[in-house]
Amino acid sequence: MTPHASLLLLIALGAPVGASAEPTPSVAAIVRSKEWKVVRTPNKEEEFIGDVRYKAGPTTLTADWALFKHEPQTWQAKGHVGLEHRLRSGDLVQGFGQRADYDQKTQKGSLTNGDALLRFKRTPPAGEPDLGEGRRLDWQGRELVSLDGEVHLWGPRLEAWAQRAVREGTLLTLSGDRPVLHLLQGDWTGAVKADTITAVERPETISADGKTQGWLQFHDDLRKLAR
Fold first, then answer.
1. Which of 42, 50, 57, 74 has the fewest CB atoms lying closer than 10 Å?
2. How would you label 76-114 residue by residue, b for 16+ Cβ within 10 Å and e otherwise?
3. Cα–Cα distance between 80 and 96 in angstroms, integer?
4. Nearest-angstrom CA–CA distance, 52 and 184
5. Which residues are bridge partners to 10 per DSSP?
């Protein structure tokens, strides 16, 4: 295929890219790029160059370059990488870095930004987004996403610092280097520092383990109920 020619491939996640089999609508993937190269020996690989866009189920990746290896069914993407991943909760996770890896069989993926921190955003179905940064973003399927290394999260609901943040469903777990969580909205607000912190978004619940320090401030209506 000539350079700058538009490429559109419909594939099934269980079949090689470009396979002639009919794709299954629920797992069909789309790959689009300016240039497409195929290597058939010793193992088949497909290289996508320029304005690459890959979409499969809840995951969308964009990049300058991508490589698909048929036998393990794995992707590599490099250069101005953008990630969008929809969790089952409806939250949209977006990340921006320089390299992404994705395994179609396991639905495991990762995003890094070289020596720099990568940027991260989580937008709930309703409300303003939370922003963040860290060294590495990982995800699996539609339930689990984690951010590792110099993690800083901030937004209208909370601000947090940790070495690792894991979100599974509505549960957020912070660990490593004595994480700190500052809750900014809800029936009560407060801050806590501990060895491990877990928080549930609805209802607002925080659990802290190990040398816990912090404070809580309740709204006036809750203080009246407590009397």
1. 42
2. ebbeebbbbbebeeebbbbbbbbbbebebeebebbbbbe
3. 7
4. 39
5. 30
- Three-state SS sequence of the chain: CCCCCCEEEEEECCCCCCCCCCCCCCCEEEEEECEEEEECCCCCEEEEEEEEEEEECCEEEEEEEEEEECCCCEEEEEEEEEEEEECCCCCEEEEEEEEEEEECCCCEEEEECCCCCEEEEEECCCCCCEEEEECEEEEECCCEEEEEEEEEEECCCEEEEEEEEEEECCEEEEECCCCEEEECCCCEEEEEECCEEEEECCCCEEEEECCCEEEEEECHHHHHHHC
For residue 52, the cross-strand partners are 63
**Structure tokens belonging to residue 62:** 């964009």
pLDDT at 153: 93
* Residue 201, token pair as written in the block: 């978004």
pLDDT at residue 219, as a whole number: 64
Residue 113 token pair: 């930004």
Instruction: Name the residue with tokens 């951010």.
Output: 147
> CA-CA distance, 184 to 54, in Å (whole number)?
37
pTM of the model: 0.75
**Count of CB atoms situated within 10 Å of the CB of 44:** 15
Within its chain, how far is the Cα of 142 from the centroid?
A: 10
